[in-house]
From TrEMBL:
Protein's name according to its UniProt entry: Bifunctional inhibitor/plant lipid transfer protein/seed storage helical domain-containing protein
Keyword Signal included in the entry's annotation: yes
Database matches in InterPro entries: Bifun_inhib/LTP/seed_sf, Bifunc_inhib/LTP/seed_store, NsLTP-like
First and last residue of the signal peptide: 1-31
SUPFAM superfamilies found in the cross-reference section: Bifunctional inhibitor/lipid-transfer protein/seed storage 2S albumin
Pfam families, A to Z: LTP_2
Gene3D superfamilies recorded: Plant lipid-transfer and hydrophobic proteins (1.10.110.10)
Entry keywords, A to Z: Signal
Coiled-coil features, chain-numbered ranges: none
Residue ranges constituting the Bifunctional inhibitor/plant lipid transfer protein/seed storage helical domain according to the UniProt record: 14-110
Amino acid sequence: MATANTHRHALALSMLLIVGVHILGNHKVSANCKEIVPSLVSNCSRFVRVPGPKVPPSAACCQVAQAVTVADVPCFCKLITPAVQKVISMEKVVYVARTCGLPVPPGTVCGSYTVPPN
């Protein structure tokens, strides 16, 4: 059985995956995705939970999300399991990423979720 801590980390990881897509063309130096997880959890988790409406993310959430690099994406995507997708809304993850100014290309796949056309 997964713990609440596992679900929080998975939530942050999925958020980082989508944010990482934005970085693909920027060629930033990679940061370890696990170092970013605590900040994403504390600043962004409430915006991507399954229950409730879409809510625009805070400036703090966007600031953390924009720190993700392309090299972080595989780290996060590996952790997007069916159990994780029961806790977080991948649709909300895309919404938050795009609201933070990060383009998320249609067709991007993580876990069983494929980003639909805008």
